[in-house]
Amino acid sequence: MSEQDKKRNSSLKKAVALKYDPAQNDAPVLAAKGTGYLAERILDLAREHEIPVQEDAALVEVLSKLDLDRQIPPELYNLVAEILSFIYRADRDAGGTLR
What we know:
By secondary structure, the chain is an alpha+beta fold. It contains four helices and two strands.
């Protein structure tokens, strides 16, 4: 890979999506991940469905290394707890009720 390709890839937007259903899983599951166009699509879908988006490049970097459809490992629980807290606050502020 050329240096120019490396720079281009490193500047591409990254996104991940988590899903969490306590009735099915003990921890959130990585539902989607992508860079560039796919990352933009993940973010567009989140906005279209009014799903709160939290921007945290370091966390995305860590989560993007995980396999899809796998539960978040225990060593990442604290980081993911911050996301869930953000989502619950955003939902409450918007007058919603998460189940």
